[in-house]
């Protein structure tokens, strides 16, 4: 399973990249706002850190507007993936842009049927939001299982990005289901590394090492 980092904070991206954990990056308007930086400037800097797919989201709501924004975004770097919302206009934009060879990440996907539509429209990536579904009492990961089955049934090439990840359990289940990618916030990435028994083990080894005659 590929790991993307879900942030527009370049320090977080650099740290995770140094750990060898970053295959790509996803951003969204909220994450860019949190970075406090100019959109184009921050996306451009991310392309200098990570050599992999970097999602940048359009904000227009109509297909022509999305297409115009997308054509500008892809000029930044060949690794740019354009994030388009899962709406009728978003699907139109996806079809047009995919036909032009632009890699599209259809975002804000909350049902397996929406994922099927995104795949049919030619999305390179599909982002179902598991955490936001869990927040409203639905099982987000159950949807991932169904999306995996549907895409495999018909041999769609679209890759599933498990998004809106809140905990290590989401990452574990994404791996068990066979999702292609998990996009992980920096805090959760740090949680993945940690295990109390690892810390205890290190302490014991170091204590015993002191007893070795020197
Ligand atoms: C996906 O690409 C989104 O950026 C992200 O995963 C949304 O997560 P949130 O629900 O924590 O905002």
Automatic annotation (TrEMBL):
SUPFAM superfamilies named among the record's database cross-references: Aldolase
Function: Transaldolase is important for the balance of metabolites in the pentose-phosphate pathway.
Keywords, alphabetical: Cytoplasm, Pentose shunt, Schiff base, Transferase
Database matches in NCBIfam families: fsa_talC_mipB
Catalytic activity of the protein: D-sedoheptulose 7-phosphate + D-glyceraldehyde 3-phosphate = D-erythrose 4-phosphate + beta-D-fructose 6-phosphate
Subcellular location field: Cytoplasm
GO BP: carbohydrate metabolic process; ketone catabolic process; pentose-phosphate shunt
One annotated Gene Ontology cellular component of this protein: cytoplasm
Name this protein carries in UniProt: Probable transaldolase
Metabolic or biological pathway, per its Swiss-Prot or TrEMBL entry: Carbohydrate degradation; pentose phosphate pathway; D-glyceraldehyde 3-phosphate and beta-D-fructose 6-phosphate from D-ribose 5-phosphate and D-xylulose 5-phosphate (non-oxidative stage): step 2/3
Record-listed E.C. numbers: 2.2.1.2
InterPro entries per the UniProt record, alphabetical: Aldolase_TIM, TAL/FSA, Transaldolase_3B, Transaldolase_3B/F6P_aldolase, Transaldolase_AS, TSA/FSA_arc/bac
Family: Belongs to the transaldolase family. Type 3B subfamily.
Chief subcellular location: cytoplasm
Active site, renumbered: 83 (schiff-base intermediate with substrate)
Pfam families for the chain: TAL_FSA
